[in-house]
Amino acid sequence: MKSYTEYIWFNTSKRREYINITDKVEEALRKSGIKEGMILVSAMHITAGVYVNDAESGLIQDIDEWLENLAPYKENYRHHRIGEDNGDAHLKSLLIHHEVIIPVTNGKLDFGPWQQVYYAEFDGQRRKRLIIKVMGE
Amino acid sequence: MKSYTEYIWFNTSKRREYINITDKVEEALRKSGIKEGMILVSAMHITAGVYVNDAESGLIQDIDEWLENLAPYKENYRHHRIGEDNGDAHLKSLLIHHEVIIPVTNGKLDFGPWQQVYYAEFDGQRRKRLIIKVMGE
Amino acid sequence: MKSYTEYIWFNTSKRREYINITDKVEEALRKSGIKEGMILVSAMHITAGVYVNDAESGLIQDIDEWLENLAPYKENYRHHRIGEDNGDAHLKSLLIHHEVIIPVTNGKLDFGPWQQVYYAEFDGQRRKRLIIKVMGE
């Protein structure tokens, strides 16, 4: 089994932001030389997520509104007693999930026609990191 | 590391449908000859999901009602401005998640007594695809 | 590819409980001797989950309240017609998800500074099981 690991840093200008990282994942796969296996893409912070869905700007706004509706920003989270204000970002991270596994076949992401990988930032405006690990042969 | 890949097609008669695919996953595992490792089962569309839970018809209706409650069908998603009407199906896919990883031990799915794999269709009545990739030794 | 499998049993005193299992996962990794690869941590029951987030007691209460809000205990789930009373636990398991994949680099969990692995019990007070499978080289 071969493996290849890469870290990507983000520092978003907005608190919440959705960044298409499909090309970064494809680049890591190309560098790895792996033809058959899978790729783990995982946020290294607990207030961010990774998901696979459509690169359509209206949908991305829908997703943001939906996440804010189900895991809203509010002042009185118990987590805020230790001086934080990002309780909602933790819940959004749990809802969207923090990692995905992508199949690799014939040296390519084995995706359907509309699948794209997104990094979802829920507490941005500071440096945060993501790991891409390709494993296979 | 050995690997084995299979694609399964669905064309559900209803818009939303929950299909137990445990036997398909077991069949792919048997064909792979792999005894130790894991299986990635992943929807290749962004309006479907894969989950592991109980094969109990009442619960499946509860799950469907719960998903509709948290990610309801409605007309005014921004995503619909490009001519779609399936915004809810994208959100349901994100909520239930689009893939699972199943452990393989001694040539079997290493599941607890009630675990079953389901394909969850949220925008059916057309051909859609799922990937099963077995990896290990 | 090497692999190493371990099972952990739980029997919580409360119905819902959140248990930090990071040290158990690290111990399994150490025993495996694997330096590069990944770890699958997966609940073997359909009324429990596994997630990665912060070891902060206020946040854990926030997570519990949030899960109860989005997937509440109630009497009239259809699943209860077969004599169960844990419909909410199935939905909470789907919401939080039942497994995570953790990257392994240089013989360590390749986590960010605050990432911890939790077992989330939603229908406890009885023996339940979790699988840890380390795979790599």
From TrEMBL, chains A, B, C:
**What NCBIfam families does this protein's entry cite?**
TIGR00149_YjbQ
InterPro entries assigned to the protein according to its UniProt record, in alphabetical order: UPF0047_YjbQ-like, YjbQ-like_sf
What's the domain of life for this entry?
Answer: Bacteria
Q: What is this protein called?
A: Secondary thiamine-phosphate synthase enzyme YjbQ
